[in-house]
Design goal:
The chain contains nine helices and two strands; from the N terminus they run H-H-H-H-H-H-E-E-H-H-H. A two-stranded antiparallel ribbon has the order 1-2.
Length: 200
């Protein structure tokens, strides 16, 4: 909310507190504060649509994962997923000078946990059919599986093709967050999470 009050100064604010891969790779050893930018950046966004889109996914999937982990562990889980997702983006786009911001990586971690916990849960989805839209219920493992494949395909197309100044979606942060979320659930979640995927 503070960011959106800054007007034109928001660009400088995002540059200061966002994760800039090139800067992170070259400064984190000499300027330890740079290590905190992944935590800062997940609370910044590129605009209202960015916030609303992220919060919609968090609203749909987050509460169920929180019910399993509990409030405290869920907070730690969320922050770790977000921070790790930025690090994945840094490693795969190390020369980028574009600030990375947003909660997408943390929420991708929530999605990774959700697909393991509730694979057969039904996700109400708006599906376009020619010029019309219809609402269908899709199993979570299909909905989130398709989501992940789209992220992976989009991320693969950025390898070696983005310049230091090109912006866009941080696909690898989404992919990294999703996979880290699955891993962290195994470490932090109930012991039976590995069997839920095959449960009726």
């Amino acid at each position: 909310m503070y960011q959106f009050t800054l007007g034109d100064e928001a660009v400088d604010f995002i540059t200061a507190y966002g994760v800039i891969p090139y800067r992170f790779m070259h400064l984190f050893t000499s300027h330890p504060v740079e290590l905190l930018t992944p935590l800062f950046a997940m609370f910044l966004h590129g605009g209202w649509l960015h916030v609303i889109g992220n919060m919609l996914y968090l609203y749909i999937f987050g509460d169920n994962v929180e019910d399993i982990l509990g409030h405290g562990r869920y907070l730690v889980f969320y922050l770790l997923c977000g921070a790790a997702s930025f690090l994945v983006q840094v490693l795969l786009q190390a020369n980028s000078m574009v600030p990375n911001v947003g909660a997408s990586g943390a929420i991708a971690g929530v999605l990774g946990a959700y697909i393991l916990l509730f694979p057969r849960a039904r996700v109400v989805t708006l599906v376009p059919i020619f010029f019309f839209f219809t609402v269908v219920e899709i199993p979570a493992f299909i909905f989130l599986g398709i989501w992940f494949l789209i992220q992976f395909a989009s991320g693969a197309m950025t390898i070696g093709r983005t310049s230091a100044l090109s912006g866009g979606v941080a696909w690898w942060a989404h992919i990294g967050g999703f996979l880290v979320g699955m891993l962290l659930l195994k470490l932090m979640g109930p012991r039976d999470t590995g069997r839920r995927f095959f449960a009726a």
